[in-house]
Write a structure and sequence with these properties.
single chain, Arc Repressor Mutant, subunit A, D-Maltodextrin-Binding Protein, domain 2, 3 domains, five-stranded mixed beta sheet, LysR_subst-bd, LysR family transcriptional regulator
Length: about 300
Amino acid sequence: MREFNWKGVDLNLLVAFQALYQTKSVSQAAEHCFVSQSAMSHTLQRMRTLFDDPLFERAGIKMEPTLRSHEIAPLIDRLLGSIKNDLLIKKHFSPQTYQGAWRIGLTDYAEQLFAPQLYDALKSAAPQSQVSFYNVNRSNYLDIAESEKLDVVIGSIDNLNRRFLSEHLYTEQHLCLFDPQAMTLPSPLTLEAFVSVEHALVSPDGSLQTQVDKRLSKLGYERRVGVASRNFLTVRRLLLGRQLICIVPKRFAEMETHSHGLMTAATPVEVPDFDIRLLYLKSNQYEEKSICLRQIVTDIVR
């Protein structure tokens, strides 16, 4: 089957046809299309060639449509209406009527902290919407963002792909977290007491050592790491009722002191701060849905 030749198809021909069909006058159609009368006459000749039909025949001062014109006129009206309303006019985003899904990628830490508040805020702004949280990390966020069409990504991600933009949400600090019912530590926490107890680690790659161990070694100290987990929830459960201490982000630590009776202490060794960032595709930066979501995330996280 031979492929259709689009070379002679011009959207302006359809616009001119509609004007001629409505006015039945070459001069009036030319005015409607903001062209000269001779240009409209030339356009009519092109239309006749394209449709292989006279389309309009002169009858006195009017151009009367042929049977073929009457047949195609409703279809051309629908086509031009669809192009105008569905293709060329950008529809405004309304959270109140939005029935789609918000797709949000979060690192484990960000999900523990912000998922419930984000859900509440999004359902308040868009009651008919759905919320889907995806677990991401520094190494897989790009693949997941592409495969799952994520709207935004939230977390400590530094190796930013050039297709993404990022906004700084806040800078996170660290605290030590432990169960005061399981062990007693001095206040303020000394370096000697810090290394005298067994440690739990939140370790994205499962490693049993971090930069903290290198700093301790330079100071002439060594700590005992008993367990490591990628998941903050697992580490919190491990701390309960056990003689374990763990360095965790400050906001997570403060949340756990309120909800599970754990206690915090300032770290006696330097632990670098880290930034929590909001990532989104450059191609979405001006989309109203993306702007709305980014504002909600910013209000919640900051």
